[in-house]
Amino acid sequence: MDLAPAAASDDLRSTVDYGLIATRIVEVSAKERVNLLERLAGRLAQMLLAEFPCDEVRVRVRKLTPPLEGLQGIPGVELIRQRR
């Protein structure tokens, strides 16, 4: 999505509705339990490309409280998907 019109005009109609995106992310994430971060990231990327006017999305999913004793850092995945 070309964000130049929104940057020039400061008009909300020139960009995506980030509030709606956040709502849809919560809905998709809560709809069905998944075992893999990769699966959740893939579902989110698919939804974003299907429902919003973007040509490419980058989705990063992290597990903030992993059940892994002694783990240093936060496990996560990042996917980049493009509209076909």
Verbal overview:
With 84 residues, the protein is of the alpha+beta class. It has one domain (4-61, 68-82): GTP Cyclohydrolase I, domain 2 (2-Layer Sandwich), CATH 3.30.1130. The protein is 42% helix and 17% strand. The protein is built from three helices and two strands, in the order αααββ. It has a two-stranded antiparallel ribbon with strand order 1-2. Helix 2 (18-31) packs across helix 3 (37-51). The protein starts with a helix and ends with a strand. The mean pLDDT is 91.
Please describe the structure with a list of short key phrases separated by commas or semicolons.
84 residues; GTP Cyclohydrolase I, domain 2; two-stranded antiparallel sheet; 42% helix
How do the helices and strands line up, and which of them pair or pack?
Elements: H1 4-9, H2 18-31, H3 37-51, E1 56-62, E2 76-82
Antiparallel strand pairs: 1-2
